[in-house]
Design brief:
Helices cover 4% and strands 53% of the residues. It has 223 residues and is mainly beta. Strands 9, 10, 11, 12 and 13 form a five-stranded antiparallel β-sheet that branches. Strands 3, 4, 5 and 7 form a four-stranded antiparallel β-sheet that branches. The protein has a three-stranded antiparallel β-sheet with strand order 1-2-6. Strand 3 (31-42) and strand 4 form a beta hairpin.
């Protein structure tokens, strides 16, 4: 189960933990190895603020693991950020139990030189008030979009420009619930808006992204 601490150890942040539930049926000295991540749904932008995947061992003496500074109370409580809508918030978790069977995975990379470059030109940058999206493009046989949030999101809200790469279908690296990865605090607003830095010229910004595709064969062996 998920446990939300709105008054955690640090009063400025919300803490979130994953805990084992109903352990009475488990044998003495039990342990469960788990890979998990915790996410918070943005009800306005329809995406997720997610923690990096964590591997933890849950024990009879330690049945709860979590994140002490998941999100600041200031960001969470501001309805314009999209996490609190109609006095409701939505937390979730992905949990993968790691079996004790030894698994040997062999990956042979055949070609690591396949790459795709895409440019995203943004005009009237100073007039942007909401996140903007690039046109759909194909890289490595997959469909993508670039997302730019001029006012920042998550940890970069009101201080940085946020940039994300959005995968328009599921794959091994992008899950169904988390199909965007990027940098909430990519570049400080003061830096990108400084005309002497050269990032914005004639109120125009140019983003370039390189996607590298790794082709290979995989085999699994169980002990």
């Amino acid at each position: 189960r998920l446990i939300i601490y709105f008054n955690g150890k640090n009063c400025e942040y919300v803490s979130v933990s994953l805990a084992m539930a109903d352990t009475s049926s488990l044998p003495a000295n039990w342990e469960v190895n788990v890979v998990f991540n915790i996410f918070l749904y943005n009800q306005i932008s329809d995406n997720y603020l997610s923690s990096p995947g964590r591997t933890r061992c849950f024990l009879e003496t330690k049945s709860e693991w979590g994140i002490s500074k998941f999100i600041s109370k200031k960001i969470l409580s501001d309805p314009s950020n999209g996490y609190l809508v109609n006095d409701n918030i939505l937390f979730g978790a992905e949990v993968f139990v790691v079996k004790k069977d030894a698994i040997i995975e062999c990956v042979s990379l055949n070609n690591i030189n396949i790459h795709y470059k895409h440019d995203f030109k943004i005009s009237d940058f100073s007039k942007l008030n909401e996140r903007c999206f690039s046109e759909q493009f194909i890289g490595g046989g997959q469909k993508w979009k670039i997302i730019l949030d001029p006012k920042g999101s998550g940890t970069g809200t009101d201080s940085h420009v946020s940039i994300f790469l959005n995968h328009l279908a599921t794959s091994y690296w992008f899950s169904a619930s988390i199909n965007s990865w990027g940098w909430p605090a990519c570049i400080e607003l003061a830096t990108i808006n400084d005309p002497n830095k050269g990032f914005i010229v004639n109120d125009c910004c140019l983003l370039s992204i390189n996607i590298h595709t790794y082709l290979g064969s995989r085999s699994l062996q169980w002990d």
